[in-house]
Amino acid sequence: MDNYKEQGPGGADDHRFAEGEGEKTLTTRQGHPVRTNQNLRTIGNRGPATLENYDYIEKISHFDRERIPERVVHARGTGAHGYFETYGKAGDEPVEKYTRAKVFSGAGKKTPVLVRFSTVTHSAGSPETLRDPRGFAVKFYTEDGNWDLVGNNLKVFFIRDAMKFPDLIHSFKPDPVTNIQDSERIFDFLSETPESMHMVTFLFSPWGIPANYRQMQGSGVNTYRWVNDEGKAVLVKYHWEPLKQGIKNLTQEEANEIQAENFNHATQDLYEAIESGDYPEWELCVQIMEDHEHPELDFDPLDDTKLWPDDQFPFLKVGKMVLNKNPDNYFNEIEQAAFGTGVLVDGLDFSDDKMLQGRTFSYSDTQRYRVGANYQQLPANAPKKHAATNYEGGSMSYFVDRPEGSNPHVNYEPSSLNGLEESPPKKAPHQPYVEGKLKKEPIDRENNFKQAGERYRMLKDWERDDLINNLVVSLKPCHTHIQKKMVSLLTQCDEDYGSRVAEGLGMNAAAGQMNEEFANDITPSKGKLPKRGGSPIGSDGAADAVDQAEEKGHEADPY
């Protein structure tokens, strides 16, 4: 066995190290040491990213294939059909000033849509009351082909660089040994990720548990570009705002009560509302910013952990969406629906947002693995217009994408033998100028705590109380050094914020010291702490529930 370790094919127990490596040195599957696991390689530290990001592509490609057949993230979901009606304007101005995308032109024009709502972290059969961001993905079947607007209910995210996405999700997923979500693992990652404090403040408040899918906001989260007829671009953020149904969130206690009765409540709520003719509606609003670095701001506008202040960049109404038809078959129309941040039409474009560029590879790559190489031929994913390609073969190929009259022997381009031809160019292309050194570095203007503190102070008293309780409950089972680090980060957001969490943990926030005896007396768990690690986030009785199941169980005779 020892000889195998010395001479075998390698692995975590192989004792052959390159210079400077040790037992815990992080490497790729090729055995290359990972010099930086924090940042993509980009032109300048703001991006764009470059295709030869080998470490990132290795990492994210493997991450995309971790689950089969359900989605790695957003596995638990539901959806519906409807339409988007454009106002033909962006606020009070003609929308064509900013974008030539036809989906927004012509007031009153309706475009069919398919929407999928979801939770992010948990498996396909998990309760819909769990504390988690919610996915809000919309597929527009436009006259120019499909456009996917893939987002969440919350307007910010935990991280700003796609290199960290697999690590983030791993920390929230079940422990690989116990197969249980563990708040200690979650806060171990978050406490080492200061930019996550803004998202933490949202997630652990009632905003982390929407009452249902109808009564929540949606956001594209990432920064995109709009391009007009002249090829001029602006930066844009998308926001879905509920109309007649309003916005409602739940406290942890309220969610626990609902979960005890119905773990499909949000799916049932959406289905029954549409079935009864109470069609949910959202207004699509955009924020627009000139396309440059904006040195006057104290944050980078491409940073997904930040909000654009609406007093400087107001919400401009561009249209509304109505969901008015339930799926005829959930699996065919919703489970096999595939969304990707790279699915854009003319007039819509990418920004240099590092998270957006990382997601754009990952999302479609996931669908090719999960559904198959020909997933775009499925009715739910196919555009509602002409589509012709030279794609060949692959699993589950349903038909050939070449029209009658073209040469069936020609599956390449260019050709003089009656094959498919390029479309003539239209409009002025947007050609941003990019220059800089290739780097793996964080952005300059991180400003990790300001907006988190502002959000904390904006919460209503009952929302703040719920936030503090949920953080204390979830941090209580964690190691002391993790608790101290989280208190330090939250204190940098707002002194009251940190001190209230510290008080709940039996800690002197100013001194950074723990009163162990006091801490044990005020344990938020109803009876005891887990034997090891943490427990599901937001739960104050996870350990007790294990014993209660045995204590309250009724004896039965074998049969």
TrEMBL record:
Q: Per the record's keyword annotation, is Iron included, yes or no?
A: yes
Q: Catalase core domain: which residues?
A: 27-421
Tell me the keywords, alphabetical order: Heme, Hydrogen peroxide, Iron, Metal-binding, Oxidoreductase, Peroxidase
Polar residues bias locations: 27-42
Q: Which cofactor does it need?
A: heme
The UniProt entry, under Pfam families, shows: Catalase, Catalase-rel
Biased composition annotated in UniProt, kind: Basic and acidic residues: 12-26, 549-559
InterPro entries linked: Catalase (IPR018028), Catalase_AS (IPR024708), Catalase_clade1/3 (IPR024711), Catalase_core (IPR011614), Catalase_haem_BS (IPR002226), Catalase_immune_responsive (IPR010582), Catalase_sf (IPR020835)
The record's comment on protein family reads: Belongs to the catalase family.
What role is this protein assigned? Decomposes hydrogen peroxide into water and oxygen; serves to protect cells from the toxic effects of hydrogen peroxide.
PANTHER family (UniProt xref): CATALASE (PTHR11465), CATALASE-2 (PTHR11465:SF23)
Query: Which named protein is this?
Result: Catalase
Q: Which organism is it from?
A: Halobacillus kuroshimensis
